[in-house]
Amino acid sequence: MSVYAILELKDLGFQDLPAEMDPNREGLGYGQNIPQMYQRLDALAEAAGVPKITSFFYDAELLSADLREEFGMPPVDPRWMPVEQGVLTVRALIAALKAERASDGELWDLQACERILQAAPSGTMFRFWVG
Q1: What phi and psi values does residue 14 have, to the nearest 5 degrees?
Q2: Residue partners of 23: CB distance under 8 A and separation at least 6
Q3: Which of 26, 62, 89, 105 is deepest in the core (most CB within 10 A)?
Q4: Three-state DSSP class for residue 87
Q5: Are the C-beta atoms of residues 33 and 17 closer than 8 Å to each other?
């Protein structure tokens, strides 16, 4: 089962891949690498002094409230955050990954997220919907 982290903007809904990243309209998407790389991304964010990528995650769809309680996990927090914080984190992560000579595939999701977040109106709240 694949897990995705897709940007959701409050009052604007889930965000598609920016059209300029899929110029041939192949139906490309984004969001699969972030959940797979979250530990590495959190470590890079911590080293850069920006919020961790997981601080923006909303994972209500992964576990039911009953399972969360059974595992001793806290209830889901909606975690709406200002897009400006997301831009700060995503840009720091892109810079850190480029310094490590990351592959284009490792950068793809973050580059898509950067474009989406910076295009959002100032003051918009967002989260990464993980499911």
Answers
A1: -70, 145
A2: none
A3: 89
A4: helix
A5: no
What whole-number distance in Å separates Cα of residue 84 and Cα of residue 11? 16
Tokens of 95: 């810079």
Give the domain extent around 61. 5-130
Q: Cα 82 to chain center, whole Å?
A: 13
Element of type H or E holding 57:
strand 57-58
Strand partners, 8: 14, 127
> In sequence order, what are the residues at sequence separation of 6 or more whose Cβ sits closer than 8 angstroms to the Cβ of residue 64?
none
CB 81 within 8 A of CB 120: no
Q: Model's pTM, two decimal places?
A: 0.88
- Report the alpha-carbon angle 56-52-92, nearest 5: 110
* pLDDT interval class at 32 (50, 70, 90): very high
Q: Which residue has the tokens 């897990």?
A: 3
- CA-atom Rg of the chain in angstroms: 15
68 or 110: which carries more pLDDT confidence?
110
Q: How many domains does the chain have?
A: 1
Band (pLDDT 50/70/90 cuts) for residue 6 is: very high
